[in-house]
């Protein structure tokens, strides 16, 4: 097993996500840092902090220069950050010392790296939003189509009362709908520029510092926090929480599908399920299992990420390094979970016959609560509960269906039909409300 399954040629299709992984490659990081350096020079030139001619040269060069990440490795191991080697390589590649001297003017390594990370996370947020939109559309369609399809609800692993398959799907989707909304609110806290200088004071730029930071934020399409945030990792901590909560919701979907596809229930089918090397009859729910595993992994990584928010003083290398070791994997696993959940949602097919069999199991005792409330309309509630309790004992002893015994003792009502109709409660309405909430605005 490789150290990072997401980067493994063997396991990447199972646990990895190419679109997200590209954003965390060495080349993507170097390119993003060069874009920040170029944008910084451009705005500094416009504001008169550095010569305009040098600023234009450096901005253009930041798009044209090609730097091999491996060439920066030796110095990165010594310096702890790649920026000193990157700036040296950039200046050398410019082949214009009179202009290159103004590169990286007044910035520090963390400014460049954090701003470059924000640029890449901006693209990642767009990817997550589009996947959530597609996933919610698929779940909304599934919930709407099966809003009134009855099935057994279970609490503590035991039969409880009837619900509908559409309501179960809505239960998967409501948290994801909230997560999509919170992703939009998370953007300004995470997608922000960093420009604070060596100790967070912006001293090298004098009075123009805040103006340069604001202009750099605008040039990069990022938010201006209005202050230094080198040691303020609250945005990253919030992102960690978002990833953990999102993958937990996806993992819940996976857990439910594992139970709903197990032998003896088989209430849903998932097209394209995995096979066994020795048992030809098996259709293993591999996708749901991966969702559960990814949720557990991201929960652990998120805890580490939030712990990395404990920064000492103005800058903390150890805490920052911990973030580097954790954030990329958490982000890639979150992306994989979103993409995989969408694939699964499009392949789920409920089995109404299997659901009906499970509802009828144990003589239809799942309708006991509904029967007690129905009888409470004609007798005191405690008496109704006692009557239903007696009937349940009789079902257990004789095997006769609860509805048949109710019809015997309380004739004049089609109890089978009545209980089936009343037991669903608000489940169909819940499912339809969720389906409506997933419709694009204006439809």
Written overview of the protein:
Helix content is 65%, strand content 4%. With 443 residues, it is mostly helical. The protein folds into two domains: 5-350, Fumarase/aspartase (Central domain) (Fumarase C, Chain A, domain 2, Up-down Bundle), CATH 1.20.200; 361-435, Ribonucleotide Reductase Protein R1, domain 1 (Orthogonal Bundle), CATH 1.10.40. The strands form two sheets. A two-stranded antiparallel ribbon has the order 1-2. Helix 9 runs parallel beside helix 19 (427-437). The longest helix is centred in the N-terminal third of the chain and has 37 residues, at 109-145. The protein starts with 11 loop residues before the first helix and ends in a 6-residue tail after the last helix.
What is the element layout, followed by pairings?
Blueprint: H1 12-15, H2 18-23, H3 26-46, H4 52-64, H5 73-79, H6 83-94, H7 97-100, H8 109-145, E1 150-155, E2 158-164, H9 165-190, H10 209-220, H11 234-260, E3 268-270, H12 286-307, H13 317-345, E4 348-350, H14 352-364, H15 368-375, H16 381-398, H17 402-409, H18 415-422, H19 427-437
Helix pairs in contact: 3-4, 3-8, 3-10, 8-9, 8-13, 8-19, 9-11, 9-19, 11-12, 11-13, 12-13, 15-16
Keywords:
single chain, 443 residues, mainly alpha, Fumarase C, Chain A, domain 2, Ribonucleotide Reductase Protein R1, domain 1, 2 domains, two-stranded antiparallel ribbon, two-stranded antiparallel sheet, 19 helices, 4 strands, elongated
